[in-house]
Amino acid sequence: MKITVKQLTQTAVLLALCIAFQTLKSISVYITGPLVNAILILATWAVGLPGGLAIALLSPVAAFFLGATPVMNLIPVMMPVVMVGNSILVLFVNGFKERQIPGLLLGSVCKAGFLWLTVWYAVLPLFAGNIPEAKRSAMTAMVRVQFSLTQLITALLGSLVAWLVWQRVRPVFRK
Fold first, then answer.
1. Residue 26 gets which letter from DSSP?
2. Could you count the other beta carbons within 10 Å of the beta carbon of residue 94?
3. Does residue 175 carry a pLDDT above 70?
């Protein structure tokens, strides 16, 4: 699959937006999460699978280095888990190009389900010991909330935002 300069440029611009949105995490995960998910979806629709996957894989790395996700800094194994969760959303969106709504719904549910199961039943039991004792209880409780229903809500909101934006910008990308 050949990637054009135009696709590379569009992916870079969308990745930059995604990174900028990640810096807003201190305001609310319910702002940052939907915006990041919307960028993943829009990149997949606008650029294609390579663009969506590039952002799905690079945005957690950027979040780690920006310190935008404190839990990722305490438990670095969260980075590949988030990468896979993002990729699941992108793959469903790409797989349902002609039937966008089912792709958005299934992608959101599967991403949230994967993150919930993996974080609750693998990452925390195996790696929560890396969290300092004084913070462990509060941090573990916060992570359990953020990687369960919160993921579903932010993925669905991001899907809605992406769908609404795509209705306006789609003609530009179809030329």
1. G
2. 18
3. no
**Among 70, 63, 67, residue whose Cα is nearest residue 131:** 70
Q: Which residue has the higher pLDDT, 140 or 167?
A: 167
CA 116 from centroid of its chain's CA atoms: 14
- Tell me the C-alpha distance between 103 and 10, whole Å: 22
User: What is the C-alpha to C-alpha distance for residues 146 and 141, in angstroms, rounded to an integer?
Assistant: 9
Q: Are 88 and 114 in contact (CB under 8 A)?
A: yes
The band of 144, judged by pLDDT with boundaries at 50, 70 and 90, is confident
Nearest to 83 by CA among 124, 107, 54, 50: 54
Half-sphere exposure for 77 (CA within 13 Å, toward CB): 13
Average pLDDT, the chain: 86
Tokens of 60: 């957690």
**84 touches 126 (CB < 8 A):** no
Token readout for 172 is: 């530009």
Q: Residue range 142-163: average pLDDT?
A: 89
